[in-house]
């Protein structure tokens, strides 16, 4: 494994050429809403298609539709889970584990992304893609049939393994199956695949939850995965083999496994705030800290100017937003008495303005102001998160949460997509792959750490006593207030980090 400044470098996890400066970095932590860069490695063995061919032309139509359908199902599941989760957690008497149903997904996916990259390089993308889809479906079945909350969380972890395998494998498929001129269009379809699920997902999941039961939100999706697999199979079999490495980089996989295990131990310790919990907490830190320091550029955690701050900001932005977003439906259902459908729909506007913010930052005339745009984005996120707990008061209209999330989504679009662009600008061509992988790690760690912190604060301030027949807003507003105050503070930290994005050498 190449090394720089005494630290191990990630090899690119998608099998594309790391010297190509347009290597994709936006689709990280399983969130492809902000895809703004393209894979550009075209296999030398792949013949050039006719000039009039397109991603929906006869040659590529089946593969494109299959890819878009898979991404749409993952997006739909993400939107649906936010809607169904409050009902599921209360029905399983496991509100104290609410946050871990989200963070378990990202913890497992962090390891799976590293494994998938090595697997794709060694065997090609088909095996990890189909294995990942199978694991994703199996996790849905486990969660949908769970009788205890800990088993539900376990199912979410299995889903995370599947999701991590799939998203990396899809990038490899794009890099090997499509010529260079079509790859940008395919990746743009990844972002487009999120729009409809963001709109339809909460409404559909809420209706199913209320009319049939929350379990069917999880149990029905695996059946929908089968048709796109059948459509994609012939095209996947025809993929050129590409260059295969001699063997998997076990060190890289072990580092990712250690990070995931350390994060899992810290989350476990956060469930039980006693002296005994210090043992798994110490073990988790012992695994997590040295491995993370080897996976991220030197200076990341002290916000060194330039690239380290870009990578740090990506994790802070993603984690703060998700740490707050995860608790919005639960707050609206338990504290304001909204239905699961209405609570889920409160997040829809944020998904749409995320895409709008991503489009805004891509305007050429705004390029000289990219760092300021990212600082503005973080401030919008902070204001958005801070405004949400105002709805705990009955005198504040409940629709104010949806308005606040529209603002926060726009800030995320400005920040997340800009971070991807700025990373490439600050990276030497030969470092683009390793720096892109560091961005993925930071994104996943931000989600794991800050969603886990939200869960700890929620339990510490009494949120675990909210059950299906239990407390109302007048009893435990502090549990939600603590979560949003902490995440708003983290967003403000991100706004400060945004002042350090410009490198001293520029």
Characterise the protein shown here.
The chain has 506 residues and is mostly helical. 67% of the residues lie in helices and 1% in strands. It has helices at residues 61-91, 100-123, 126-145, 149-177, 180-211, 215-219, 221-237, 250-271, 278-295, 307-325, 328-335, 340-345, 348-361, 370-387, 400-426, 432-460, 477-497, and strands at 3-4, 7-8. It has a two-stranded antiparallel ribbon with strand order 1-2. Helix 1 (61-91) runs antiparallel to helix 4 (149-177), helix 3 (126-145) runs antiparallel to helix 4 (149-177) and helix 3 (126-145) packs antiparallel against helix 7 (221-237). The longest helix is centred in the middle third of the chain and has 32 residues, at 180-211. Mean pLDDT is 78; it is low at 1-32, 34-46 and 468-474. It is a multi-pass membrane protein. Keywords: Membrane, Transmembrane, Transmembrane helix.
Write the topology of this structure.
Layout: E1 3-4, E2 7-8, H1 61-91, H2 100-123, H3 126-145, H4 149-177, H5 180-211, H6 215-219, H7 221-237, H8 250-271, H9 278-295, H10 307-325, H11 328-335, H12 340-345, H13 348-361, H14 370-387, H15 400-426, H16 432-460, H17 477-497
Antiparallel strand pairs: 1-2
Helix pairs in contact: 1-4, 1-5, 1-7, 1-11, 2-3, 2-4, 2-8, 2-16, 3-4, 3-7, 5-13, 8-9, 8-16, 10-15, 10-16, 10-17, 13-15, 14-15, 14-17, 16-17
Order of helices and strands: EEHHHHHHHHHHHHHHHHH
Could you give the order of strands across the largest sheet?
1-2
Question: Low-confidence runs (pLDDT<50, min 5 residues)?
Answer: 1-32, 34-46, 468-474
Helix share bin: 55-70%
Cα-atom radius of gyration: 21 Å
Oligomer: single chain
The largest sheet is: 2 strands, antiparallel
- The secondary-structure class comes to mainly alpha
Number of strands: 2
Share of residues in strands = under 5%
SS summary, helix count: 17
Distance N to C terminus: 29 Å
Average pLDDT metric:
78
Q: What is the general shape?
A: globular
């Amino acid at each position: 494994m190449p090394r720089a400044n005494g630290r191990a470098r990630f090899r690119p996890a998608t099998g594309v050429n790391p010297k190509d400066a347009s290597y994709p970095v936006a689709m990280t932590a399983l969130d492809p809403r902000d895809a703004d860069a393209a894979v550009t490695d075209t296999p030398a063995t792949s013949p050039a298609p006719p000039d009039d061919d397109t991603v929906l032309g006869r040659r590529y139509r089946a593969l494109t539709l299959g890819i878009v359908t898979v991404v749409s199902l993952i997006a739909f599941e993400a939107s649906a889970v936010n809607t169904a989760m409050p009902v599921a957690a209360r029905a399983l008497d496991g509100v104290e584990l609410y946050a871990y149903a989200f963070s378990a997904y990202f913890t497992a996916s962090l390891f799976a992304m590293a494994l998938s990259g090595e697997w794709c390089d060694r065997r090609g993308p088909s095996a990890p893609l189909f294995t990942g889809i199978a694991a994703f479906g199996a996790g849905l079945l486990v969660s949908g049939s769970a009788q205890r909350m800990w088993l539900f969380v376990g199912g979410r972890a299995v889903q995370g393994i599947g999701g991590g395998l799939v998203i990396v494998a899809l990038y490899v498929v794009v890099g090997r199956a499509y010529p260079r001129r079509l790859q940008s269009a395919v990746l743009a379809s990844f972002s487009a695949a999120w729009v409809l699920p963001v709109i339809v997902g909460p409404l559909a999941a809420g209706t199913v939850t209320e009319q049939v039961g929350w379990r069917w939100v999880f149990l029905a999706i695996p059946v929908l995965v089968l048709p796109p697999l059948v459509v994609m199979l012939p095209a996947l079999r025809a993929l050129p083999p590409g260059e295969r490495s001699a063997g998997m980089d076990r060190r890289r996989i072990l580092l990712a496994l250690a990070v995931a295990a350390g994060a899992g131990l810290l989350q476990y310790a956060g469930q039980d705030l006693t002296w005994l919990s210090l043992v798994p907490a110490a073990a988790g830190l012992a695994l997590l800290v040295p491995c993370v320091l080897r996976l991220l550029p030197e200076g990341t955690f002290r916000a060194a100017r330039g690239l380290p701050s870009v990578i740090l900001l990506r994790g802070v932005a993603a984690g703060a937003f998700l740490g707050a977003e995860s608790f919005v439906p639960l707050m609206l259902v338990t504290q304001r008495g909204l239905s699961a459908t209405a609570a889920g729909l409160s997040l829809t506007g944020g998904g749409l303005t995320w895409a709008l913010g991503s489009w805004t930052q891509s305007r050429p005339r705004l390029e000289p102001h990219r760092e300021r745009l990212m600082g503005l984005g973080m401030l919008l996120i902070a204001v958005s998160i801070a405004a949400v707990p105002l709805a705990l008061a009955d005198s504040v209209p409940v629709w104010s949460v949806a308005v606040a999330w529209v603002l926060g989504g726009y800030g995320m679009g400005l920040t997340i997509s800009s971070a991807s662009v700025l990373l490439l600008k600050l990276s030497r061509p030969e470092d683009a792959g390793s720096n892109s992988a560091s961005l993925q790690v930071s994104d996943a760690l931000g989600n794991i750490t800050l969603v886990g912190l939200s869960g700890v604060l929620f339990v510490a301030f009494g949120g675990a006593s909210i059950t299906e027949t239990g407390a109302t807003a007048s009893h435990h507003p502090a549990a939600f207030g603590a979560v949003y105050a902490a995440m708003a503070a983290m967003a403000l930290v991100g706004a400060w980090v945004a002042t350090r994005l410009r490198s001293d050498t520029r």
